[in-house]
Amino acid sequence: MKNIQLITNKKTTTFFGLVLSALLLTTVGCVEELELPEAGSLPDLTPPSASFSATENENFLIYSFSNTSKSATTYAWNFGDNGTSTEAEPTHEFPAIGRYTVTLVASDDLGVSNSFSKEINVEEPPIPPAVAPTIENGDFENSSYDAWKVDVFSDGTTRNPYNGSSDGEPMLYDGTSADSKTRGAKWTNSTSAAHLRSANSRHAYQAVTVSAEREYILEYSYAIKDDRDDVTGGDRVVVEVLDGHFTDGVNAEAATRIITHVGDTALGKGNFTLVREQFTSNASGLISVWMWACTSEDAYIDNVKIYPAE
Predict the structure, then answer these.
(1) Considering the entire predicted model, what is its pTM?
(2) Are residues 186 and 60 both part of a single domain?
(3) Exposed end of the chain (fewer CB within 10 Å): N or C?
(4) What is the rounded distance in angstroms from the CA atom of residue 171 to the CA atom of residue 306?
């Protein structure tokens, strides 16, 4: 077979060379354009890893999210309640009690992403038990007056809170029988208040702290020796819970009363009447016990307590 030659611009090209070139051009034209990596590019050796923790706030519906993702630069949050955020560490308020699946998608500058999800159980926290305050020398067994003294009486009234007595209730502070009389607090005609008020009038005061706006019981026992109708308003003991703490007895006398109980049942010396009165504590939880009497004979108070009603 003869080799056929074509002459073009004085250059010789074989017929088979032309055919091969045409075939190559036709084939390449049918292949999509390939995208090759940029020269010197490297694979993503540290892809992002999404992660977070959640902390409940004082308002149990609000959570703060701590972002612990690695190798990420942008963040997309979905809180499972139609709420979203692109902040790194958002705070989010859920609409109501329930379970919500929170998802974080963390991405880097190369467009690589990773997601992490966690279920958040939004529930109202249990109410803590109400504080049970301690009433110091509430049974008056300690002959010292200190626990029941107001710091000062600026009008010159005595700071002594009551008269000591061995004619208290025949019951111990825990409610069990003492089988005999115990010590108690006593008021007489000369230490009475109200219309019998004088520099010798005695007021027992003690500041205590309770849980705010909770239900409490004021409990005490009292006895009145006799009621002869010779005292205006009748012989009586008065136990009150005041709104606040006070250093001056004058201010305590003028304070807002949360509760006032007047004991006026005269059953005779040694015959005590038990009192239980419920009240709601104030918004601060700072309250005071304030006690006094108005009597022509003798009146007694014993076993003073304040405790949660729940």
Answers:
(1) 0.70
(2) no
(3) N
(4) 17
